[in-house]
Amino acid sequence: MTNRMMLCGALLALWVGSASAAQKYDVAAFYWPSCHFDERWAPFFPDGKEGEWESIRNCKPKWEGHWQPRVPAWGYLMDNDPKAMQKKIEAATSHGVNVMIFDWYWFENKPFLESALNDGFLKAKNVDKMKFYLMWANHDANTSWDIRRSHKRHLIWPGSVDLPVFKIVVARVIEKYFSHPSYYKIDGKPVFSIYDMTNLMKGLGGVKQTAEALDYFRAEVKKAGFPGLHLQMIYWNAVPKIDDSGFASNKGTAANTIKAFKIDSLTNYQFVHLSRPIADYNHWADKAISNWPKWSSDFEVPYFPHVSIGWDNNARFVRKMGAVTKNVNPETFKKYLLKAKTYADAHPDQPKLITINAWNEWVEGSYLEPDERFGMGYLEAVKDVFLSPEE
Question: Cα 109 vs. chain centroid, distance in angstroms?
Fold first, then answer.
């Protein structure tokens, strides 16, 4: 054998070894970009300099054994600091979390809380190690973000937009994000998720107008040089149900909604949208995932399985709120990650994408980032499930 042949053989073996070691699952964590100073965000807090860290740091236990405050093992990092984001990206990717889904906001005809993505994540030196995509969090903003007014639930900014504003949003996300080399795509199509389809429909004027607006979005994405748009819908009880006449009504179905709006895939944002928070994590999670088989059979588009870590939003309220308090730990979380993996493996015709709530929903008690109680336990659970070597 010649030296050239030996070299080629060695390179081939190296390539095969690298390919076999490549991550087979896309594990995507939602990112809530709330922990930094933002001029319009600051009035929600007494001090306002560090965003929602203020509520998280100051939360006190409301009953015996209540696990508060939640204390981050890395300290109170500002999420628009590229060095902080570099640390997060390194920890995430080394434990199998290779996609971030950024909650993205648009209020008063301008973006809101974009700095974590623009100044933090996208300026991190290792951003090329991780993919990201946007979930348009187009829900209304109300006083529940401000602990001093959270009991009032008064509207601050509507999340719905009319068609002219929708077109501004479309232009911004295409020009600013879709072309970034780290933007997550399926079949070459940028993935864009919408949180509240009912609110979208409300602003645009109805089913027909919304379908036309989404077709406009797809056409603009193609004009930008992409093969199309992958439109993902967050599935929960707020999803409008469209009937056979083409209107949202009590006789409607989610299957009709998917067809009317040409939705490409579904996932969930939080178990709490599917299951009322009760004490035991296992019972809460079992109810939340009980519809996976039904969604798989009823819908013609992929459902990407979702796993939430927990629920305790008491840091946002003076009064006692419902929380999941029992069996909330990395071991039980891992059990449901395995269920999500099994679901993904049973659907080989769709991408192996799993979503998690969340990377950093500290204020809602659902985060992968290390804390003083479990350390890196939740990230280690992800790594054990999705990065373990093949037997």
Answer: 23
